């Protein structure tokens, strides 16, 4: 990078940067209840506090007097409390009415179902309220606005409102943040100066001050850009370093393409689509590169033929006289891979085996012996492949399906069985491009967007309880034709904690307030649903499938379903991945508002996979609000089968971590990044991470040492694998 920094200057920068790691208790005003409150908010270090950004801002440079507040618009009004009253117009309904006054008039404010506000506001207090201004009964009014009790610091400025909790007020949070910012005035920036100048970014110290106390919202926007870039750059560095930890000083395997690849192409009962063929060429080019270890993501929606594409990598390993391992998240899916790929591999003259938790001891012993001796080329399996007794003669390709269902340690553990092995990870979860660039930025990506064989498709319809007969009639018609059905429930048993539901931000907001207390009782569970459906469909065999069942039990139920011995399968989202039964044509998803859009799309992908069209009925709470994110998800699901279009919408409605189950090791998610808007920032960070690691592969150079320290702070365990720290 052409930057020379003296060791003394570097040491000074490191010392200044390390001040961010100080315990928060070392700050003025932080002790007792306030310290406990900060720790409850996850604030342990000074840096945690500085990254605890405001949830909104009160812009007093545009605050109105009561007389001037525009009707029908959202406005900020600063006034004093004149009177606070509390009334109960009906049972379970409490209204706190607050009269605010200034020299120009009176503003009546009402807070519904928030009785504690009556104790928080007192006559004479100076407050700011932000909400929609209405006019009724002779007064300007606001209903349940944001409010903030002010001190003398708020005058003609933009005031941050930080997330707080019991034991610390917003005013105290501002004071403590100000103290932390005073300590960061001399903070040395961990970004190399030339890189900061190239990207026209604020200094770190200025960005931290501006995100908390901006002079205007434009300055706040520039600060967010700097902090978003930092998040993405550090994430990219951590991801790449994590990969490099197992690849340092390891020679790549230069695979060859020969007779097995050609035989596989002839064995396929169909022609590869253009997208499939392009993905195959990507994989084979990576595998035959003598200077490059493959790290590739194969991304494709349900039914796009990723399995056939992956088989070409297995054939290249066979042509090279080496071995490959395919690890799936469930025994069902591992066995399904073996059933689909096995005949193709047999036709191409490639030996294979299957190892799962239910493989018998004699079969396992024979399989591991032949793998160890190099007699078997391909091993399909679950986490059972990670066992110590599974030893490969020469493993040069690792294929992992639905990789976000495995931990980093599991992926690396399998890869360690073949140092220098190429890696191909696959997922059927459609991922927006920006999310793939950031979360999977260490992987080259091949995308298959379209199904080679469109299939019969799935018609989706959202129903309420009043229309349940429509869904049940569809099941009866399917059973009469010899077809089968799924019924999906959010819980295994009644009384299970709500924490066992898939996390959907705003799940409670979907309900009208009168329904929230009944939310838990309204959830369907597998145990009760099985008994109910046995009564409704008396002539059908109804069975349960849940993640709590032992592997052998799950396999037995799915095998019975495949053989059509079970007509109705009642399950949790365990069927989202891995169950492929073409004769299953109807799915009913209970409490659909409780699931994310990506999950709903994956679930309905289980039907309509054969020559018979599928029907998916999503049951929705009758009182789901039309403007809620839950309603928007279900409405979009009805309108399109395009998984990538739905993924883009899901990204706008939900956070990236909820979509993929992704969490950084330090518990830090992408709090500053807008994955829907920040394409340029994401691409810049990805490019710069590559350049930095080309300059210093462990960031140990003087110019990058502070950046290395920041990576350690945020991703310590991951970085130490490669840094030796």
Explain how this protein is built:
- There is one protein chain.
- This protein has 725 residues and is an alpha/beta fold.
- It is 39% helix and 18% strand.
- It is built from 25 helices and 22 strands.
- Helix 13 (361-373) links the parallel strand 12 (352-355) and strand 13 (378-381).
- The protein is globular.
- Mean pLDDT is 84; it is low at 1-6, 502-518 and 656-668.
Give a summary of the structure in a few sentences:
The protein is of the alpha/beta class. Helices cover about 40% and strands about 20% of the residues.
Q: What proportion strand? A: 15-25%
- C-alpha termini separation: 24 Å
Percent helix, as a range, is: 25-40%
Q: What is the number of E strands?
A: 22
Describe the sheet with the most strands: 7 strands, mixed
Shape: globular
Count every helix, treating DSSP H or I runs of 4 or more residues as helices.
Answer: 25
Query: Spans with pLDDT under 50 lasting ≥5 residues?
Result: 1-6, 502-518, 656-668
Calculate Rg over CA atoms.
Answer: 29 Å
Rounded mean pLDDT score: 84
Main sheet: strand order: 6-7-4-3-2-5-8
Tell me the structural class.
alpha/beta
Features of this protein?
single chain, 725 residues, alpha/beta, seven-stranded mixed sheet, seven-stranded parallel sheet, 39% helix, disordered N terminus
List the helices and strands and how they pair.
Elements: H1 7-18, H2 32-40, H3 46-50, E1 56-59, E2 74-90, E3 93-102, E4 105-112, H4 117-120, E5 126-132, E6 134-136, E7 139-143, E8 146-149, E9 158-161, H5 170-183, H6 193-198, H7 204-212, H8 217-245, H9 259-267, H10 274-287, E10 295-300, H11 306-319, E11 323-327, H12 331-347, E12 352-355, H13 361-373, E13 378-381, E14 395-401, H14 408-415, E15 422-427, H15 433-439, E16 444-448, E17 458-463, H16 468-480, E18 484-488, H17 513-516, H18 526-536, E19 542-545, H19 551-562, E20 568-571, E21 584-589, H20 597-604, E22 614-619, H21 629-639, H22 643-653, H23 656-660, H24 679-695, H25 705-723
Parallel strand pairs: 4-7, 10-15, 10-16, 11-13, 11-14, 12-13, 14-15, 17-22, 18-20, 18-21, 19-20, 21-22
Antiparallel strand pairs: 1-9, 2-3, 2-5, 3-4, 5-8, 6-7
């Amino acid at each position: 990078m052409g930057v020379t920094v003296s060791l003394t200057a570097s040491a000074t920068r490191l010392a200044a940067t390390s001040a961010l790691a100080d315990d928060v208790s070392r700050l003025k005003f932080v002790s007792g209840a306030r310290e406990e409150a900060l720790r409850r908010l996850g604030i342990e270090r000074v840096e945690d506090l500085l990254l605890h950004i405001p949830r909104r801002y009160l812009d007093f440079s545009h605050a109105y007097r009561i007389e001037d507040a525009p009707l029908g618009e959202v406005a900020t009004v600063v006034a004093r409390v004149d009177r606070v009253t509390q009334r109960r117009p009906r049972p379970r309904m409490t209204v706190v009415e607050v009269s605010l006054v200034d020299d120009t008039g009176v503003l009546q404010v009402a807070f519904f179902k928030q009785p504690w506000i009556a104790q928080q506001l007192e006559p004479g207090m100076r407050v700011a309220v932000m909400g929609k201004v209405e006019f009724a009964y002779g007064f300007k009014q606001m209903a349940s606005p944001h409010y903030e009790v002010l001190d003398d610091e708020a005058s003609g400025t933009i005031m941050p409102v930080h997330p707080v909790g019991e034991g610390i007020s917003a005013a105290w949070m501002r004071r403590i943040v100000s103290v932390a910012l005073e300590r960061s005035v001399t903070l040395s920036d961990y970004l190399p100066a030339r890189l900061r100048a190239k990207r026209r970014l604020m200094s770190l110290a200025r960005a931290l001050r501006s995100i908390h106390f901006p002079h205007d919202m434009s300055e706040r926007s520039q600060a967010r850009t700097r902090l978003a870039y930092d998040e993405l750059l550090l994430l990219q560095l951590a991801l790449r370093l994590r990969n490099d930890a197992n690849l340092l000083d390891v020679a790549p395997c230069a695979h060859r393409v020969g007779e097995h690849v050609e035989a596989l192409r002839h064995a396929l009962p169909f022609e590869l689509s253009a997208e499939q063929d392009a993905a195959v060429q990507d994989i084979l080019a990576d595998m035959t590169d003598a200077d490059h270890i493959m790290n590739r993501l194969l991304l494709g929606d349900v039914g796009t033929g990723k399995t056939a594409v992956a088989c070409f990598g297995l054939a290249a390993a066979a042509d090279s006289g080496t071995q490959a391992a395919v690890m799936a998240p469930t025994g069902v899916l591992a066995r399904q891979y073996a059933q689909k790929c096995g005949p193709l591999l047999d036709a191409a003259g490639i030996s294979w085996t299957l190892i799962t938790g239910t493989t018998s001891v004699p079969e396992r012993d024979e399989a591991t012996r032949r793998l160890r001796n190099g007699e078997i080329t391909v091993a399909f399996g679950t986490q059972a492949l990670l066992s110590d007794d599974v030893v490969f003669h020469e493993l040069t390709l690792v294929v992992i399906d639905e990789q976000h269902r495995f931990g980093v340690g599991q992926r690396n553990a399998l890869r360690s069985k073949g140092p220098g092995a190429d890696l191909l990870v696959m997922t059927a979860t459609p991922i927006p491009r920006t999310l793939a660039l950031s979360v999977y930025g260490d992987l080259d990506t091949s995308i298959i967007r379209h199904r080679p064989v469109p299939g019969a498709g799935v018609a989706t319809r959202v129903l309420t309880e009043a229309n349940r007969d429509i869904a049940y009639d569809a099941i009866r018609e399917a059973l009469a034709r010899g077809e089968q059905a799924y019924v999906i429930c959010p819980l295994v048993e009644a009384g299970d904690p709500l924490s066992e539901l898939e996390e959907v931000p705003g799940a409670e907001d979907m309900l009208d307030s009168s329904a929230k207390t009944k939310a838990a009782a309204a959830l369907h569970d597998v145990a009760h649903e099985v008994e109910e459906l046995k009564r409704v469909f008396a002539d059908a065999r109804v069975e349960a499938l849940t993640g709590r069942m032992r592997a052998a039990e799950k396999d037995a139920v799915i095998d019975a379903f495949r053989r059509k011995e079970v007509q109705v399968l009642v399950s949790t989202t365990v069927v989202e991945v891995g169950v492929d039964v073409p004769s299953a044509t109807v799915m009913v998803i209970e409490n659909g508002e409780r699931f994310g859009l990506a999950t709903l799309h994956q679930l309905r992908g289980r039907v309509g996979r054969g020559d018979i069209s599928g029907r998916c009925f999503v049951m929705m709470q009758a009182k789901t609000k039309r403007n809620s994110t839950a309603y928007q998800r279900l409405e979009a699901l009805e309108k399109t089968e395009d998984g990538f279009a739905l993924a883009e919408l899901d990204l706008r409605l939900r956070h990236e971590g909820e979509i993929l189950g992704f969490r950084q090791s330090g518990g830090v998610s992408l709090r500053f990044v807008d994955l829907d808007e920040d394409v340029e920032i994401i691409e810049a960070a990805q490019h710069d991470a590559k350049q930095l690691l080309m300059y210093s592969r462990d960031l140990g150079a003087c110019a990058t040492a502070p950046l290395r320290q920041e990576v350690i702070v945020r991703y310590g365990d991951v970085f130490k694998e490669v840094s030796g720290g």
